[in-house]
Fold this sequence. Notes:
- By secondary structure, the protein is an alpha/beta fold.
- It has two domains: 371 residues, Peroxisomal Thiolase, Chain A, domain 1 (3-Layer(aba) Sandwich); 37 residues, no CATH class.
- 33% of the residues lie in helices and 18% in strands.
- The protein contains 13 helices and 15 strands.
- Helix 2 packs parallel to helix 6 and helix 3 crosses helix 4.
- The longest helix has 20 residues.
- The protein is globular, with a radius of gyration of 21 Å.
- The mean pLDDT is 93.
Amino acid sequence: MAQDLDHLGRPIIVVTGMGIITALGQGQADNWKALTGGVSGLRRITRFPIAGMRTTVAGTVDFIPVDEMSAPALSQRLAELVIEEAVAEAGIGSKGDFPGPLCLALPPVEMEWPQRLALAAAAGAAETVDYAALLRAAGSGDFERFYRRFLFGSVAEGLADRFGTKGSPVATSTACASGGTAIQLGVEAIQRGEADAALCVGTDASVNPESLIRFSLLSALSTRNEPPSAASRPFSKDRDGFVMAEGAGALVIESLEHARARGAKILGVLEGCGEAADGFHRTRSSPDGKPIIACMRRALDDAGLAPEDIDYINAHGTGTPENDKMEWVGVSTVFGERAGSIPISSNKSMIGHALTAAGAVEAIFSLLTIRNGVLPPTINYDIPDPALPLDCVPNVARPGHVRHAISNSFGFGGQNVCLVLGAEPR
C-alpha cells in the first residue's frame, strides 16, 4: 500500500490549519488555556431584554462587533476570523485564493424581530398594516439589505468571495451535527479526488430572543441561572438542560501527499467519519440508541480501528438528561467493559452548546488534546449520576497520552456524526 493511502486505499486526510472562537475567547491559545483551566465562558445575556425569560444565560460572543446585529451577520464575521487564523497557520494559497472548496455549517437563516419590526413600521400604523402594505414596504427598495442578508446562501457566498475558495460553496444545516458534517464533506471531496485541500467551517451566532424561546418551550435549556458559570452540567445527576452558545471553528484539511509536497506542518489526522440518521423524532433520540451506536462503529470502521484503540472521547455531552443518557448507552455498547475507564469530557460544560458550530469547535479541541497531552475537564460535575458510570475527567484537567480520539456530534432530528482523529499518519 502506498505510504499516503489509508487502509481502504484512499488519500490520508490531515489537518494543517485551525482557527477557533468560543465564549472563552478568540484564537487557539486563549481558548486552550481557558478550557484546560476549567474556566467557564457562560454569562448573563445582555444583548436583548431577558425579563420574564426562564433561561437568562448563554455563551455569547459579544466581544466581536458587527455593524448590524443578526445571526447571519455575526455568524459570517466569526467564520471570517477563524478562517483567517486557520489559513495563516496552514500557510496555504494566497490572500483571496484558497486552493479548494468551502464546506460550511451554519444555522438556519430567517429574518429576525428587529428587521421584522422595521419593516412593519415602514408599512404603516399597526392597526392598518396588512399583507399588501408589507409587500409595498418590502418592495420600496429601502430593505434590499434585509433581503440579501437573510438569504440562506448569503453567508457561504460572502465567505467564498472573500477567501477565493473554488467551486460553489457547500452550506449545510443538519442541526447539532452540522460542524461534523462540514468536515465529513471536505474529507469525502478529497478522497474522491475532487480537490487536494478543503476549508471546513462551522459557525453559529443564534443567541437571539426567538431561538432562546423556542428551545425553552422544548424544555431543552437549563434554568440554573445563578451563577451563569454553573448552568451547564454534563453527566452530573443534577443536569437540567443545555446552554445556548455561539462560536466558530475552521480547519484546513489536505491529502497527506499534498501537505508533504508543500512542506506543511501536520497538526493531526482525520482518520474516519461515521454518520447515521434515524428520523425517530424531531428532538428525541431513538430509545434503543442504535443510530448513535451505528455512528460510532461506522467511524471506527472507516478509520480501520477497533474500540480498544480509542484513548479519549470528546462527548457531545449537552447536559440534557436525555442526551447524556443516550450517549452513555452508545458508548457503553460500543466500548463494553472499557466504557467506564475511557476519559470522556464535555467541552460544553465551559463553552455551552455552539449548535451548528459545535462539531467543528470540538474537533479542534480534540486535536489540541491529542497534540498537547492534556485532557480538558468536565466542570460542574458535583453529583455523580450512578446511571452514568463514566470517567468524565471531573472538574480538573489531567495529563493523558492520546493516540486516537472520537469526537461525537448528535443532533435534533436524528442527525449523528462521529469523527475519529489521530496524532500522526500511520
